[in-house]
Amino acid sequence: MRLKDKVAVITGAGQGIGRAYANRFAREGAHVVVAEINEEIGRRTASEVQDAGAEALFLKTDVSKEESCKEMAARAVERFGRIDILLNNAAIFYGLDREDTSLAYFNRILSVNLTGVWLSIRAVEPYMKRQGKGKIINQSSTAAFMGNVGAVDTSDPDKPSPPFHYSVAKMGVNGFTKYFAGALGPWGINVNAIAPGVTLTEATKTVVPEDMLNMLVMFTALKKPLQPEDLTGTAVFLASADSDMMTGQVLVVDAGMIMLG
Question: Chain-centre distance of CA 4, in angstroms?
Answer without folding.
Answer: 22
